[in-house]
Design goal:
The structure holds 2 protein chains of 2 kinds. Helices cover 37% and strands 26% of the residues of chain A. Chain B is of the alpha+beta class. Chain B folds into 2 domains: 31 residues; 77 residues, N-utilization substance G protein NusG, insert domain (mini-chromosome maintenance (MCM) complex, domain 2). In chain B, the strands form 2 sheets. In chain B, strands 2-1-7-6 form a 4-stranded antiparallel sheet, with no helix packed on it. In chain B, strands 3-4-5 form a 3-stranded antiparallel sheet. Chain B is elongated, with a radius of gyration of 21 Å. Classes of the chains: A alpha+beta, B alpha+beta.
Amino acid sequence: MSQLIYRAFWSCTLIGVLLLSACSRPEESRLHAAQLLAMGTLVEVSIWGTSDEHAAAVTAQIEQRLRRVEDDFHPTRPGGLKTVNVALAAGRAVAVNDEMADLILRAQHFEEASQGLFNPAIGKLIALWGFQDEEPAKGPPPSANEIQSISDQHPAMSRLQLKNGLLTSHSRAVQLDFGAFAKGYAIDQAVAILRRQGIHDAIVNAGGDLRVIGRHGDRSWRVGIRQPDGHGIIASLALGGDESIVTSGSYERYFDYQGRRYHHIIDPRTGYPAQGLVSVTVLAADAQTADAAATALFVAGKDDWPLIARRMAVDQVMLIDEQGKVYLTREMARRIRFEIKPEPVPVIIKP
Amino acid sequence: MKAAFGLTIADKLLVGLVIFLLLSLYGRYWSSATPGERFRVSSIVNGIQTMDFGADRIIAIEGPLGTTRLQIAGNRVRFISSPCHGKQCIHAGWLADAGDFAACLPNRISLTVLGLTKEYDSINF
């Protein structure tokens, strides 16, 4: 009996040790990660399964492209968008190139789909709050009269007209600020370069907004979602194929003034920072849709976001309100895994 | 001296030792909280730097708001000062396990503890 137990024990031990050693974690040697500064943030490009030389060459192309997007679409630096804004403020028509025209049309589409909650025409309000400056905003907040005088003019993308490459505005109050989806657009541009260069497995992460294509070797890409308070990772999910995940949060840019916090996501209906939520995470096929939808749903708030999500055709959403309550769409609930203990008890909503 | 299942005291000690070794191996390689081996600091000013925990020290990282300081001690790292308003990065406390993450978004600095392999391929925020 003793011999039998002895043999069984050592057999199990041997199998255990073999299993532990054989199932080693995936090797990382085929992963090329490069970082670059563009779009006012840190961009990380992770490419799986190509040569060092190819990865470096493609990353250099991406850097060049993102720098151009940044120059062309920065609202205050000398360049394409500032020229457009100066003309719009003066009531003049202005010629725009194909890329600018394309972005304006996309912005008009997202504005219409979001019932005006995504509105890149409120550049004047964003500047008034100090969130357009290179330096972080410090306050104080603008006066109610200043805000009202701009809001009363109802700046909106729908007031722009584009014909034969010529842009005109029905309102001088329209000033374009593509901050709410420029990063998403830039990420999509980077992914287009990757694909053109024959790369099918990669992640482009621009300041926390990201798009994945393909896989990490024999598994999906693993993405963690940061907690709004900065204390680690709240949840994770496996992404693959071609998916983007973008979070808009009140913690990204803000200033405190006389005990009150003012963040950078301005509600076009009121001219003040949107209330009720601290973060909105959206998963969509492309980064610009995810980016625009995250902003629109944040502005929509706790009551109206399901309607706007439906109109913008996004069904994978996570929201966290100011009390820390988590809201998930059913589709997001199926994919997400909470990484904190105790796990939040989410409210599941079908948009 | 024979006991239950015919095992001697030496047998039992050996079994205990092997079970302990297996549990240790599991904890080291497979448990969700893997001790960190290194950490990575991302800054819009300084770029990305990967560092060993090594000796206890304080390091300065530059961001657009100014200097953020990190303390490294006993295979852990934490924010100890930052020019941001909310100080949420400091309240995050010590980071020690692979995948632990904290950030000072106003000063554009993030901190990730790395294990033998990365817990996440990318972080969304």
